[in-house]
Structure formats: structure tokens, C-alpha cells
Design a protein that fits this description.
By secondary structure, this protein is an alpha+beta fold. 30% of the residues lie in helices and 21% in strands. It has two domains: 113 residues, no CATH class; 103 residues, Rieske Iron-sulfur Protein (3-layer Sandwich), CATH 2.102.10. The chain has four helices and twelve strands. The longest helix is centred in the N-terminal third of the chain and has 30 residues. Bound molecules: FE2/S2 (inorganic) cluster.
Length: 219
Amino acid sequence: MHDVSRSPEPTPGEDLESLAGRVDRAIGDVASLEPQARATAMALREAIEAFHRAGLTAIVKRLKDDPRGKELLFELVDDPSVRALLAMHGIIRTPAPTTASEPPLELVQIQLPGDTKGWCSGPQADEVTAEKPVAFEAGGAKILVLRVKNELRAFRNACAHVGLPLERGMCDVEAGTITCPWHGFRFDADTGECLSAPQCQLEPFPLRVTAGVVWVKPS
Ligand code: FES
């Protein structure tokens, strides 16, 4: 049986990075549990998150409906802990250019005001598996997040051949590669280097994970 060490008690005033680190370690511990225990832990996590999401959604919706509340809400999301919490629940998202094909925002979603220093929130880190990359759009860029050797990598979601999307590419977990579904170019999923045409390369983006959420800085 896997031995999951007990999380330390919260420290008053603990900073966001430390809190996020504890979340990430706990998620890592859950991932290594036996299947039945992992399923129970995931069900508990989802139930608690749904409970929190419902309350947070009600708070954000009410604040948005009031001019002063909206102002306060925008001030609140400048706080990294509030920003991370709302992004984790899909209640806010970072600015991205809208296109005609993009669905309208749901009522509870808000565009963050001002500069977010270029970092855009993406999927939950545990949605990205070694077999299945996740594609999303943010900051005007199409982004592909891959898991390779249990690390996450982000690239522009454009094959170095003729720029077609890669999220349906075939991942070879052992070799750490992804093969483009269109014409078969193969890439090192760690570095983005093209193994079929050495002069080609996927464009990498900086990536970090905060409180279980992937953040990418597209250039
Ligand atoms: S677009 Fe990827 S191999 Fe052609």
C-alpha cells in the first residue's frame, strides 16, 4: 500500500507558492495511490471543488451585477491567490482576443483587466496525460500542452511542417515523441525538435503550474 505522508498543518501567512506546492504534492500523492483509493480521493476532490465552485460562482455573479462590487472584484483578482483560485475553478480567464468563432463568455466568466504579465491560464495539470496532449487558445496563440517523462511542456500548436494542429498526434510514451497526424512528422516532446526534418522545430512557450493549473506565457 502506498504510504502518503500527512500534509503539514497550514502556517498562518503561508505564501501562495508554498500553498500551491502543497496542493501539487497532494495531487502527486493521490496519483500514486492504488486505483480504488485514487478513485475515492478523486471523487472527494471533485465533490469539494464543485461545492466551492458553486459558492464562488454565486459570489462573483453577485459582485459583477453591482458597479462597486465589480470594481472590488477587479481589485481582488489582482491578488495572485484570488486569481489562482478563480482560474482553478474556471470562473475567470486571462484576456484573449475574441473571434467570431469563439463562444460568448458565460455569465460568471470575466475578462481580467489590465496586464497579466503575459501568463495565461490553461487546463488542469492532471488533465494532460502522456497519451493525450491538451490544446487551448490564450493570449492570441494556439497552445499545445504535453506531458513527457512526467513533466509538462508547452508549444505553439502548429506543426513545423505546414502549421497544422498537433493535438490529435500520436504520442509514443516510451520514446517521448509526438507524431503529427497530418503527414507524419515526428517531434521530441521534451524539446520540440523535429526528428523527421532536423531543420524544423516546434516553438516552445514558458510553462508553470500553480495550484494544479497550467499557466503558459505565449510570446
Ligand atoms: S502538418 Fe504536420 S507533418 Fe504536415
